[in-house]
Write a structure and sequence with these properties.
By secondary structure, the protein is α+β, with helices and mostly antiparallel strands. The protein has two domains: about 5-160, no CATH class; about 165-220, no CATH class. The chain has six helices and seven strands; from the N terminus they run βαβαβββββαααα. Strands 1, 2, 3, 4, 5, 6 and 7 form a seven-stranded mixed beta sheet that branches. The longest helix has 26 residues, at about 130-155.
């Protein structure tokens, strides 16, 4: 893990996780959303204020990219501000290694539809917008493919559960289930078909569970590194 850059969605943006990443000699780029309302509001207000003032008198970095392909054009802008340039954030000392606040604005245009998305991040990396933009872009690519798979297999987008921690708990269970279905290779069917078939066939359910347990046994039986 040492030397890696760990990107995590807002669900995993926690001070304890940031500490674990730094302790493993890695860096983090953590998405910030409404689950940290005070911190999110501070970063959002900071960037909005600086944009209105043209970042006058504040050290910052900026990069812009435009990508075209498959009838789609996407403009991405990224601003980075060192933590030393902003007022003290809520529980700032608990975010070990925090160096930079990041705002990304995406404006995708597909056919005749244009949308605008604004994303905020915390990172232990230095303020290098081109590098950070590439890291975030890679994360989106992986997340989009994974989300598509979850939606096809478990109709995730249609889930109406919104109360308390239930959405996060269900999201975690879906990811575990998807990993288990991927391990079962005897039935050459889609994961959706496997998911539908297992509850109706106890023998196949046992096959799925056995594949998962076999993988776990293989991993635990590996000799420790010297």
């Amino acid at each position: 893990m040492g030397g890696c850059i760990i990107t995590i969605d807002a669900m995993g943006t926690q001070t304890a996780i940031a500490s674990q990443i730094l302790n493993a000699k890695a860096d983090y780029v953590l998405a910030l959303k409404g689950n940290h309302p005070i911190l999110y509001g501070q970063e959002k207000n900071c960037f909005e204020q600086q944009l209105s003032q043209g970042f006058k008198g504040i050290i910052h970095s900026y990069d812009k990219r435009v990508e075209k392909g498959h009838h789609r054009t996407e403009k991405r802008q990224i601003w980075c501000v060192p933590i030393s340039q902003v007022q003290t954030l809520h529980n700032q000392d608990n975010w070990v290694g925090l160096k930079c606040l990041v705002m990304v604005v995406r404006v995708p245009h597909l056919w005749n539809q244009t949308t605008r998305e604004v994303h905020f991040y915390l990172t232990s990396l230095n303020c290098a917008p081109r590098n950070l933009g590439q890291v975030i872009r890679l994360h989106w690519g992986v997340e989009n493919r994974f989300h598509w798979t979850l939606d096809v297999t478990f109709s995730e987008d249609g889930c109406g559960v919104r109360t308390g921690h239930a959405p996060q708990n269900l999201a975690l269970l879906r990811r575990i289930a998807l990993n288990v279905l991927n391990l079962e290779q005897s039935l050459k069917r889609s994961n959706g078909q496997k998911s539908n078939g297992a509850p109706m066939d106890n023998n196949y359910m046992l096959t799925v569970v056995t594949a998962c347990l076999s993988q776990h046994d293989d991993e635990t039986s590996q000799p420790a590194c010297q």
